[in-house]
Design a protein that fits this description.
Shape: globular
Helix content: over 70%
Distance between the termini: 78 Å
Strand content: under 5%
Strand order of the largest sheet: 1-2
Number of helices: 13
Length: 396
């Protein structure tokens, strides 16, 4: 067998193995996408389907408005209805202007927005200069993280007068701040002590603990989670069941992770299995059941879905911080990496593992599990509403 045939067979084998490994994720996401589409169609899909493009744009933009501004959105929709359908250009101009005013309301003064933007640029430049001089390994993460927070703060100032600020609660804010602060602290320690690691199995191979792409992804993740914990969109706030179950699921995910790592330390070969198994089983036990319970208690698919969203937002930074904390302990005890217990690698390899593996499993595994759980938990309430609607239709 020549070399080309061997390469072809190896490529085919890799493709088959990859398809087998990804099949459960793909099927689960297909089911979750169908459930989300069905829920959207019941709520708004039928209504939006009958609208033209400008009316859909206006409806989507006004859906972002707080409750006290919904009357303005209804008034703009009524104004758009007065523009003849044949005048497409006029309808698009009106809808685009209303959408811009809804998303970027002229509430904050230009001076305040300018000051906030200038402070954001200054803070980003200062972070880049400081980390470049003191901690070069952090020169990508720090300015990206500070710049994202500054941009989000500037946007908040621009919307402050019209949108206001709604506090999500002490538990959500506290967990969000604790998770992001712990991640930043561990990141600084790792980059100061272990900026690179050696592959003992490969001669003279030294790798960076935090590559630029990983640093940028981590900065976006932490900035987004922190912002949602401090200033979440208003549609996430009214459901108290979702908030409570979301906090409980986030705490349960981290507690299960720490408990699993502690139990592995007691074995004959501690750390030999790693945490891949928990990344598969943990979301099933916590996110699937928690989302179903939230949907059942809240009697709606939305309650379970929002509970899953809170669990992911609060759990991601906490999981990364717990991963990095356990990695130090495993390294001191000679247990290998937290992911799979592999030896012959420096402790710095855990930094990239702690960012990518929880993110991949939370996004590809936990999110669709939460959607399925929400559908299962809300099935009884949905059947009850269907019966009540049928009884009402029969009496009329």
């Amino acid at each position: 067998m020549n070399r080309d045939k061997r390469i072809g067979l190896l490529g085919g084998l890799i493709a088959v193995v990859g398809a087998v490994v990804l099949a459960p994720f793909l099927w689960l996401w297909a089911v979750a996408a169908w459930l989300l589409w069905r829920a959207w169609w019941r709520q708004a899909g039928v209504r939006l389907w009958a609208l033209d493009g400008p009316a859909r744009l206006l409806a989507a933009a006004t859906a972002t408005l707080p409750a006290d501004r919904r009357d303005w959105g209804a008034a703009m929709a009524a104004e758009l209805a007065q523009v003849p359908v044949q005048e497409r250009a006029a309808r698009w101009r009106f809808a685009t202007g209303c959408a811009r005013a809804a998303i970027f309301p002229p509430g904050g003064t230009r001076a305040a927005v300018g000051v906030a933007g200038a402070l954001a640029v200054t803070a980003t430049a200062a972070a880049a200069l400081a980390t470049g001089a003191v901690l070069p390994a952090r020169r990508v993460f720090a300015p990206t993280f500070v710049g994202l927070l500054g941009g989000l703060a500037t946007l908040a100032v621009a919307r402050s007068h019209r949108a206001g600020w709604a506090w999500p609660g002490a538990a959500i804010t506290g967990l969000g701040l604790a998770g992001v602060a712990a991640c930043v602290a561990f990141l600084g320690y790792y980059l100061a002590e272990f900026p690179a690691y050696h592959r003992a199995r490969v001669t003279a191979a030294t790798l960076v603990s935090l590559p630029p792409v990983t640093a940028a992804v981590l900065a976006v993740l932490l900035a987004g989670c922190l912002w949602l914990a401090l200033r979440p969109p208003r549609w996430l706030l009214p459901d108290r069941h979702a908030r409570r179950f979301g906090v409980g699921m986030a705490v349960a995910l981290i507690a299960g992770f720490v408990l699993t790592t502690s139990r592995q330390e007691l074995g004959d070969q501690p750390g030999s299995e790693g945490m891949v198994f928990y990344l598969l089983i943990g979301p099933i036990l916590v996110v699937l059941t928690g989302s179903a319970a939230a949907a059942a208690v809240g009697r709606s698919f939305r309650s379970g879905l929002w509970a899953c969203a809170w669990a992911i937002v609060l759990g991601a930074p906490l999981l990364i911080a717990a991963w990095l904390a356990e990695a130090l302990r495993w390294y001191q005890q000679g247990q290998g990496t937290v992911l799979d217990g592999a030896g012959g690698l420096g402790v710095g390899v855990n930094l990239g593992d702690a960012v990518w593996w929880p993110l991949v499993f939370l996004a590809l595994w936990a999110v669709p599990l939460g959607v399925v759980g929400a559908a299962v938990g809300s099935a009884r309430a949905r059947r009850r509403r269907a019966r009540e609607h049928g009884d009402l239709a029969s009496t009329t």
